[in-house]
Predict the structure.
Amino acid sequence: MLPRVTSWGFLTNHGRVLLCIARDPGVRLRDIADRLGITERSAHGIVTDLTEAGYVVKHKDGRRNRYQIQAHMPLPEPASQEPAIGEVLALLTGAVLANDGTPQAGDGDASVSPQVLAQAPQPADQ
């Protein structure tokens, strides 16, 4: 029997916001907040953090913002292979990168924006 995990998760709110943006680059802060169960003010603060750290670039589109994830950026944690954020987002959203680095449809229900996949680093030749 698997234990119930209700009081914590593997992803921080910053990671969860990044996933929302990867799935919908035109997502509104209000929608991010609703999807994640956080306040709009918290969503704004997290998007600001991600923008200031260089993981997200904000573009004005009329009265709304569109976001572009900088998929080449490394994870902000020490890791032995330092995967880029685009590789992690592709994994979490079910997107698949072909051996030549081109995006392919994944088996999962989730999708990742073509902008994220286009910026994902090329896999190393083996």
Observations:
- Helices lie at 13-23, 29-36, 40-52, 85-93, 114-119.
- The longest strand covers residues 56-61.
- Residues 40-52 form the longest helix (13 residues).
